[in-house]
Specification:
Layout (H helix, E strand, L loop, with lengths): L2 H8 L4 H21 L2 H4 L5 E3 L12 H8 L12 E3 L20 E3 L4 E3 L8 H5 L6 H29 L1 H20 L4 H27 L7 H25 L3 H9 L1 H8 L7 H6 L3 H14 L3 H25 L12 H25 L9 H10 L1 H14 L2 H21 L5 H29 L5 H22 L9 H17 L14 H4 L1
Antiparallel strand pairs: 1-4, 2-3
Helix pairs in contact: 2-8, 2-9, 2-11, 6-7, 6-8, 6-20, 7-8, 7-10, 7-11, 8-20, 9-16, 9-17, 9-19, 13-14, 15-18, 15-19, 15-20, 15-21, 17-18, 17-19, 18-19, 18-21, 19-20
Subcellular location: Apical cell membrane; Basolateral cell membrane
Protein name: Solute carrier family 22 member 7
InterPro entries: MFS_dom (IPR020846), MFS_sugar_transport-like (IPR005828), MFS_trans_sf (IPR036259)
Length: 525
Amino acid sequence: MKFEDLLLEIGGFGRFQILILAILCLPRINLPMHFLLHNFLAATPSHHCAIPHQEAFVNLSVEEVLLVSIPRKPDGTFSSCEMFSQPQFHLLLNSSLQPENKSIIQHCQHGWVYDHSQFTSTISTQWDLVCERRGLNQATATFFFIGVTMGAVVFGYLSDRFGRKAMLQLSLVCSVGFGMLSAGSVSYTMLAIPRTLTGVALSGLSLIVLPLGLEWVDVQHRTFTGILSSIFWSVGNMLLALAAYLVREWHWLLVAVTGPCLLSIVCLWWVPESARWLIAKGKVKQAHRHLLRCARMNGRKDFAEDMPLTMYAQRMVLQREYKNLGGSYSYISLFRTPVLRKISLCSGVVWFGVAFSYYGMSMNLTGFGLSIYLSQFVFGAIEIPAKVVMYVLVNRVGRRQSQAWTLILTGLCIGANILIPKPLTSLRSVVAIMGKGFSEAAFTTVFLYTSELYPTILRQNGMGYTSFMARLGGALAPLVFLLDEVWRSLPEVTYCGVAVCSGAVAFLLPETLNVRLPEGIEDIE
């Protein structure tokens, strides 16, 4: 007897499943508030070199002081990283003159002055992570995603070994602890270490929440479950914009986005362990208890009364079935057999491309004529209709076509904005929002698609491996912004190329529309 058949008898999508999904949506909301926090935590406001001896300029306006102290860039704006070694008072007579002697231009010697109209403080303003230290600013996001990458490997293995729920609880507790340590940081190093560990902890949430929900619902509601979980990611996206708008000081912003994990810890006690996992591990008594609770809550009283006899009569059948599936499995098992090897290689490339392009777009909120808070909110809001459309598409055209074309269209939107002139901010905004919608549609599809590609005994290992590839893409995405020093459009060209290429690879994956979740490797092969 397949687990899917047993699930249909006790109610594949009733009150029991709705309660589980409602609770699991809480940590899902919290995830983007950390994953995209870099946009506000490390925001760099407009700045210029601090000008010494201000008493010498008492008769000059602020604009005039800048004019004689700070060189202009080719576009006419004041330089953020350079200053004159001596005041150039002759520029007051003709500001269009350019100093002939370049030796009088030097790097900032006395620190920087920041515009605090938008942010009270960020890590950039607190530790001067600008100009020559700009790389450290972007590295903050990379450190976080390196932690997420390591966590994907760790929690993927542990959740298959010790269970989904236990590892989800551990992940939440560690997220709170390391998040609060980050908020109390007094130096860059002190921030970087707990922020990396926060990434490790949050990876467990990202990895376990969706599979745990999917393993309790029937085939007909898997797509709905995946889309619903993904919608709450977008809600968290919009709530991050609200939290950042209300809390402009980075220490307290970290506290604000970490606090909701406490609510998730409390509510998680009502979520049962995956019955699929329990049976796969031979823990039939525990699975029986959870399935009985499911039947009663879903109103299957007749079945609930007969269930003890039914379960014990079927126990030997189930144990024999899962004994063949059980044993010792690791990440190496993903590459041992031909079909599974192909799935693992292709899905790894797709996940890398999805995350690389998604975070590349999500961390570039400027240049569209909108405030950073409104851009964050709009980028989050556009994800919801994108997910609703995907709910229809993945059931009509299938997972494979949806995955491939959303990635390709994401790349084309990024490429289009390279060609659209900067002054056309409205058009650039529309194209960017469309690209963000396609990017989120690709992310929504890949979570659902990957959960259906791997068998139960290797599902968390498979999710751990693909999540590792995704976080690798997320870790590299912020660093690509530094390539603008080589060529201004090189970051966008890179995001575009990776998205289109990974979309093409998605065509090599098998279709899973209306196919039962595979239980063992032989189901895949």
